[in-house]
Structures are given as structure tokens and as C-alpha cells.
């Protein structure tokens, strides 16, 4: 697996198929990562990213590759999580980078946070306008296997309270094998989203719907108006179709998950699991980028559901602009 920087002719043909007549002229990406080697332990990051500095300008140039003739107006940005991040360090580096990026783009940052982090410091970042929300991650919950953690093990109540106080975004990457379909995840999300109604809960990857059989779990959550999803890194049209049908296009945000979108591969439903497959491992040069597969999947889902131009505009731009209040700045 490597971070691709060049497109193949197959990529270009599929980009045309994914974007022409579908992706609007202006786009805001609701799920983008930055990376800096000073703030992670090298053994815990994918070799594909090791040693690379990905700041906002690197990110936006890469995204422009697969959204030609579109203006990437802005993004919701947060550091790429690895097991041993220097979280205050990487957050401060990102805030400085976004301050610079704000001269040319509409940008907002989420602070990478773990359960034991300094709450007063994080509250200061909100108050100073440096972050608009939080990005917890299961790897920060405890040592060992964290893939079956409950929501509050990696996103304890203080994070919900803080987001509620600031009308902030809580970007959640659900774990447990059944993701949005797991009753424990549903119970925690319903209880906490109801208790903290100004906390804007974004379930990343359509509620971590890499296995499309789990996406129907979103139906249990649809009644709470502060629960949303992003489309990032989902390469199954069925997942996005169910998410759009369940929540409606006003609660779905386009996201790329850069740098993940620039790996050549896709993630497919496989029995009761999801399987990442990569071109390098298979020796298959005809495969395309995760981000292009994801756009093709989103287009297929939108067309199957008969979404109109206003709906598409919401997914790629209006929803993000409204939540991040770019228009008001
Ligand atoms: Zn991500």
C-alpha cells in the first residue's frame, strides 16, 4: 500500500465517470487529515505515511487531482490518529497551519483527543476559536485491542459536554464489529446525543459502514436531529444508499478521508466483516483510488435514490457550510 501521487489513465476515466454532471462546482470536504512525523511514534503509523508531512496545502493539492475543475473551497481537518500521538503537539501544529490556510480557504479544525487528556486546555482551544470540535479515536482508549470498545471508553461524557457547550462537532469512528447496528453503540448514542442536543455528532464513514449490512443500524438513530454521517472512504454504494435513504441528504456530508482516499484499493463487505483490498498486495494495476471508488459509490447511491441537484449540492457543500458557519465568518 502506498500513497499515490500520480493518476493512471484508468483513474482519469473513472474520475470522469464519477464527477461529470454530478459533483458541483464548489466542494467542502468534511473529513480530511493532516500528518506530521514530529508527533507520532514511527512504528505506529502506516509505512505509506511514515516520514511524510501532510499539511493543508499538500492535502488540497492532492484532492484537486480527483476533483478537476472543482473549487475545493474548504475542509474540516483533524490530525491522522495513531496509537501514540503527541496530541497537544499535533493539534497546535495543525491550528497554526489552518490559521495560514484560512487566508485562502474556509477551514475548521477538530482537536485529536483521548479520554485522559487535559480538559481545561481543550476548552481553551474551543474558546480561542482554534477548534470547532473533537476527534476521539478508539486507539486512545486503552492498550491492547480497542476494536470492541464501547462509545464512552474512547468518547467519555466530558467530550460530549464540551461539544454541547460550544455547539461543537464530535467526530465518532464507531467500533465493535456491528458498528451502527450494535445495540450497545445505539444505546450510548441515543442517550448521549439526547442529553447533549447541541453536540453535533458526525458518525464517520456512514457510521463505519464498511460492511453495508451494518448501515441499517442508522435507522435506530435517525430520530435524533443532531446525528449525521460523512461519506468518507466508503466504497460500497449500498452503504451510502441506506445512509441517504435513512437520514436524508441534509444529514450526509461528503468527505475524502485524505490520505486514505489516495491509497489504491477499496473496502468490501465480506460476510460479517469488511475487507480492505489493495492493488499493491494483489498486483492489480487496474484498480483505482479509494477516493475515486467512494465518489463512484456516492454517485450510484444518489442516482438510485433519484436525488436532485439541490440534494447533491447539500451533500458536497451546503450542509458543511451551514454547520461550520463559514458564511457567518
Ligand atoms: Zn479518517
Overall residue-averaged pLDDT value? 96
Q: Could you give me the name of the CATH homologous superfamily?
A: Metal-dependent hydrolases
In terms of per-residue confidence, which ranges show pLDDT below 50 for 5 or more consecutive residues? Answer: none
Q: What kind of sheet is the major sheet? A: 8 strands, parallel
Tally of contiguous helical segments:
12
Strand adjacency order, main sheet: 1-2-3-4-5-6-7-8
The coarse overall form would be globular
* Proportion of residues in extended strands: 15-25%
Instruction: From the alpha carbons, calculate the radius of gyration and give it in angstroms.
Output: 18 Å
Helix content: 25-40%
Tally the beta strands. Answer: 10
**Total domain units:** 1
End-to-end CA span: 40 Å
- The top-level CATH class is Alpha Beta
CATH topology: TIM Barrel
* Unique bound compounds: zinc ion
The ordered H/E elements are HEHEHEHEHHEHEHEHEEEHHH
CATH architecture assignment:
Alpha-Beta Barrel
- Structural class comes to alpha/beta
Amino acid at each position: 500500500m502506498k500513497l499515490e501521487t500520480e493518476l493512471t489513465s484508468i483513474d482519469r476515466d473513472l474520475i470522469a465517470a464519477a464527477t461529470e454532471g454530478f459533483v458541483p462546482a464548489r466542494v467542502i470536504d468534511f473529513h480530511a487529515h493532516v500528518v506530521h512525523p514530529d508527533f507520532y511514534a514511527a512504528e505506529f503509523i502506516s509505512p505509506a505515511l511514515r516520514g511524510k508531512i501532510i499539511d493543508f496545502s499538500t492535502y488540497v493539492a492532492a484532492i484537486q487531482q480527483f476533483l478537476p475543475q472543482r473549487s475545493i473551497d474548504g475542509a474540516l481537518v483533524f490530525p491522522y490518529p495513531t496509537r501514540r500521538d503527541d496530541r497537544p503537539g499535533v493539534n497546535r501544529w495543525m491550528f497554526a497551519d489552518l490559521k495560514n490556510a484560512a487566508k485562502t480557504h474556509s477551514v475548521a479544525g477538530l482537536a485529536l483527543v483521548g479520554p485522559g487528556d487535559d480538559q481545561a486546555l481543550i476548552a481553551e482551544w474551543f474558546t480561542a476559536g482554534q477548534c470547532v470540535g473533537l476527534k476521539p479515536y478508539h486507539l486512545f482508549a486503552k492498550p491492547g485491542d480497542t476494536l470492541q470498545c464501547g462509545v464512552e471508553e474512547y468518547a467519555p461524557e466530558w467530550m460530549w459536554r464540551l461539544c454541547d457547550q460550544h455547539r461543537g462537532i464530535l467526530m465518532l469512528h464507531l467500533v465493535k464489529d456491528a458498528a451502527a447496528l450494535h445495540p450497545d453503540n445505539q444505546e450510548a448514542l441515543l442517550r448521549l446525543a439526547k442529553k447533549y442536543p447541541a453536540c453535533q455528532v458526525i458518525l464517520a464513514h456512514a457510521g463505519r459502514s464498511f460492511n453495508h449490512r451494518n448501515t441499517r443500524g442508522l435507522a435506530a438513530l435517525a430520530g435524533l436531529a443532531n446525528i449525521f454521517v460523512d461519506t468518507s472512504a466508503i466504497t460500497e454504494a449500498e452503504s451510502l444508499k441506506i445512509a441517504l435513504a435513512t437520514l436524508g441528504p441534509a444529514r450526509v456530508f461528503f468527505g475524502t478521508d485524505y490520505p486514505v482516499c489516495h491509497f489504491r484499493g477499496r473496502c468490501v463487505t465480506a460476510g460479517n466483516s469488511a475487507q480492505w483490498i489493495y492493488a499493491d498486495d494483489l498486483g492489480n494495476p487496474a484498480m483505482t483510488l479509494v477516493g475515486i471508488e467512494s465518489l463512484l459509490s456516492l454517485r450510484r447511491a444518489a442516482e438510485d435514490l433519484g436525488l436532485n441537484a439541490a440534494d447533491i449540492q447539500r451533500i458536497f457543500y451546503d450542509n458543511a457550510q451551514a454547520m461550520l458557519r463559514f458564511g457567518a465568518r
